[in-house]
Specification:
The structure is a single chain. The chain is built from nine helices and nine strands. It is α/β, with parallel strands linked by helices and 387 residues long. The protein has one domain: Rossmann fold, CATH 3.40.50.1820. The chain has a nine-stranded mixed beta sheet, with helices on both faces. Helix 6 links the parallel strand 7 and strand 8. It is globular, with a radius of gyration of 19 Å. The N terminus is likely disordered.
Length: 387
Amino acid sequence: MNKWQITLLVLLLLSGAIYWLAAIPATALPQGSESQRWFTQGKYPVITEAFKAVDETRKTQANNDFAGRDVRVLKGKIWRPQGLQNPGPLLVYSHGFMSFHQEGLYLVRFLASHGYTVVAVNFPLTNFFAPGKPFISDVVNQPGDVSFLISTLLQRNADANDVLHNTIDAKKIAVAGVSLGGMTSTLVTFHRQVRDPRIAAAISIAGPSTMFTTDFFTSTNTPFLMIAGDGDAIVPFDKNAAPIPQKDLGSVLVNLKNASHAGFAQPASTFLRFVSNPDTLGCREVMKGLKNKPAGAKEPEFLPGLDAAKDGIDLSDRSLPCQGEIPASAMPAAQQHMYTTLAAYSFLQSVFADDATARAAARNYLLHTLPAENSSDVAVSTEPSAQ
């Protein structure tokens, strides 16, 4: 482990420790507004549980000085509501490239306080401390990891001796993730080879999507939300997020104006909150990480085995991230987290709320009230489905 990794590890631990000291101020929202009401913490205390699952049916490939494993080990955490009376939704959160499972702490804790069980793990070869250095092409194995996590938690849900017994509604399963984690969530929801039909809602937060054609999204009509910032220097908004409503009719795009890419991660609002644009650091590290390939391997493919045109994948755009000028400043990360939470929670409630009136109210807030009350920062677009 080099000095930069050791330093980052310390900072990541500190970011969790000072989470509450850097809490997002509700005063950023209009007083007495619907947005302020939607941003209220839920009634459930949140229990955090260390989590480990081992998938013995799939291997972890060799990666430089890492010899590989015959299994895939998934370590992370579960956040669950205490005192839940009836089964609630399950959300699998996927981290981005060179990140870690607590990257979305601000979001997962909020959802857990509202009755959601959330699980997030470090993916074997794309997390920051991956053996042999982070390797981006292992993203093709992450949809399988997500499906394995869903199966594991549903097994625990059925076990009368488990603390998760009868806390998960198997018809209310969602996926979400940032950057490469957003791409993972999109793949496991829509890709014909690896999609999991148990998923009832999906969120990509600044996930790469230039390669997904209109045909890609025809495999299922699962509700889909894209949250992105038009100031993103790593995954450019115009090529990735902007076309989503036209590619997937019925999907929703939330544009956070002047928001960065790295600003979606938890550390950006804690120890990096005084950095004017966290993409300046993010671009440097991502470009380093993209150079990694297993010793003796050819230049790594981005989606080996999942790039067939018949499945709606088009990799003709090979442009690298961080090629444009990085804006000098970006939306403050705490503000970015607030709007991300509002968009994600209202979207999920528009799918999972218990009655039709509540679902309709959540969708109305997402599509109309959220951008109206916060018009200087948020824009929302959608194209009606033909169905």
